[in-house]
Design goal:
The protein is α/β, with parallel strands linked by helices and 261 residues long. It has eight helices and eleven strands. A hairpin with a 2-residue loop joins strand 8 (196-198) and strand 9. It folds into two domains: 59-221, Ribonuclease E inhibitor RraA/RraA-like (Glucose Oxidase, domain 1), CATH 3.50.30; 228-258, no CATH class. The longest helix is centred in the first third of the chain and has 27 residues, at 30-56. Helix content is 43%, strand content 23%.
Length: 261
């Protein structure tokens, strides 16, 4: 049995549609607003990708110099912060704090793991382990989870273990040393995506972390574009100086010519 739609109902529907179409240029619709929001999010994502790509191709030493020149502040971590194997990466900081506390709580470190599962591609896991030079802040299991979620790397103000496996999967980690110990039973999760001080350098969630064989620097997100621009200029000058030094056989003359050391 078929149902016939009255002619007047069709007329009303068509009229309503035509009216809505006529008013569209005058009244922004919810769909338009969502489209604008989506475009803005895409632009931000594109900007972030371009920014990280820049930091992945510039030397950390130049970034450190640029940060000092622009902000007047130290941005580099100390010589104690070293890679478990040669590596270069850049990404946005996901910060985690572990507080020293003897306990028998099986959930004491749950937040540390949740921070990994909530992380996204291009993240850098930045962990502060209180008095943790001889405590492994992470090992192979956490490194595997970070790699599976496409983290760029990890920076641990504490020790690292399971380094053979981390090397096997190629997940880059900087830490204060290699130790076999565990944080389980000795530490409690103190928070994630909060400001921390990692090896003497303040780091907030979303800051850019850049690392290579010279060390690690942290760049506040608000200054990242300006710092990258200057770091690129410094890189270009320094790389141009090598041939000049070889030609003139004089570093003094090259420094005079390029104004870079």
């Amino acid at each position: 049995m078929s149902t016939r739609i009255p002619r007047y109902a069709i007329s009303v529907a068509v009229g309503t549609a035509l009216l809505a179409f006529a008013l569209l240029p005058l009244i922004p619709s919810a769909r338009q607003n969502l489209a604008f929001a989506s475009q803005a999010a895409t632009a931000t994502s594109t900007d972030d990708v371009a920014l990280l790509d820049g930091y992945r191709h510039v030397e950390v030493a130049s970034v450190s110099d640029a940060m000092e020149k622009i902000t007047g502040k130290r941005a580099y971590m100390s010589h104690h912060m070293r890679p478990i194997f040669p590596a270069k990466f850049a990404g946005f900081a996901v910060t985690v704090l572990l507080k020293k506390e003897e306990n028998q709580d099986p959930n004491a470190l749950g937040g540390m793991l949740a921070a990994i599962d909530q992380g996204t591609a291009n993240a850098v896991y930045v962990m502060k382990v209180e008095d943790g030079a001889d405590i492994a802040g992470m090992g192979g299991l956490m490194g595997t989870a970070m790699a599976a979620r496409n983290f760029s790397g990890a920076v641990i103000d504490g020790g690292v273990r399971d380094v053979a496996y981390l090397q096997k999967i190629g997940f880059p980690v900087f830490g204060l040393g290699i130790v076999p110990s565990t944080s389980v039973g000795h530490y409690r999760f103190g928070g994630s995506n909060i400001p921390v001080v990692c090896d003497g350098v303040p780091v907030s969630a979303g800051d850019i972390i850049a690392a290579d064989n010279d060390g690690v620097v942290a760049i506040p997100r608000a200054s990242a574009a300006e710092v990258l621009k200057l770091a690129r200029e410094m890189d270009f000058k320094e790389h141009s100086m090598y041939a000049t030094i070889e030609k003139l056989k004089s570093i003094v003359e090259a420094v005079k010519q390029f104004g870079r050391l």
